[in-house]
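Action item from last meeting closed. Structure (249 res):
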């Protein structure tokens, strides 16, 4: 399926695929102002990108998109988005919200956002299952990331960048591991004020939880905050052999 420039204010795309018949969505928005776009895929080996072939070619947004929702339920599903919004206004924000829900195993999602000088972004992540991977690189004056993750063996790479003197970034995350699979969590922040809190995030999806970061297997966690004001607060349990490295500068 191919969706090029969207003219409507709201679009909903829902597809179901199997191992034999995966659904591939080619998506791009070039200009215009869209209120909300929702993608829902159920099954195996579905993909959302700019060409439906590889997530190395991300789906692109260069106009104004207020809300993007991505839901992939199943296994080995992939999505990749690169968003460079146009200049926003008070009435029509260039980009306001991205919500991601992954339920199943071996799903992969990648998000890159280059927001305009006055932009804000709320990124809500809900993941349940094993061996799922989420990568996000966010450039915005103010961005908020909420993560709710339950399952075994996962990878998160979250980067937040802001250049303004009054910029603020925050991450609130709840990682609860159910097994002993490999875990890799990397969080990097730059800007005037950076905050990371492990425990009781706002949840997106069908489950909620508390407990901060509970990692049962071999875990590598890296926290890097480059700012004048930085804070890391965590309720955390990491099994022997795991490492948590925190750098604030």
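Sequence:
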């Amino acid at each position: 399926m191919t969706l090029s420039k969207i003219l409507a204010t709201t679009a909903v795309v829902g597809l179901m695929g199997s191992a034999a018949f995966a659904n591939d969505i080619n998506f791009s928005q070039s200009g215009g102002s869209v209120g909300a776009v929702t993608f829902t895929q159920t099954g195996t080996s579905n993909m959302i990108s700019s060409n439906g072939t590889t997530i190395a070619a991300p789906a692109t947004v260069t106009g104004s998109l207020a809300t993007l929702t991505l839901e992939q339920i199943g296994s080995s599903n992939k999505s990749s988005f690169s968003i460079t919004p146009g200049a926003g206004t008070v009435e029509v924000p260039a980009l306001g919200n991205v919500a991601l829900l992954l339920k199943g195993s071996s799903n992969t999602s990648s998000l890159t956002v280059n927001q305009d000088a006055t932009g804000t972004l709320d990124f809500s992540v809900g993941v349940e299952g094993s061996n799922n991977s989420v990568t996000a690189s966010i450039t915005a004056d103010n961005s908020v990331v909420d993560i709710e993750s339950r399952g075994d063996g996962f990878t998160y790479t979250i980067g937040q960048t802001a250049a303004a003197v009054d910029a603020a970034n925050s991450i609130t995350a709840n990682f609860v591991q159910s097994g002993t699979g490999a875990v890799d969590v990397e969080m990097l922040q730059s800007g005037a004020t950076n905050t990371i809190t492990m425990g009781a995030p706002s949840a997106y999806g069908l489950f909620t939880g508390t407990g901060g970061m509970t990692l049962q297997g071999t875990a590598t966690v890296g926290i890097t905050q480059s700012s004048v004001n930085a804070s890391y607060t965590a309720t955390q349990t990491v099994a022997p052999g795991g490492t948590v490295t925190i750098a604030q500068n």
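Note appended to the action item: The two ends are 46 Å apart (CA to CA).
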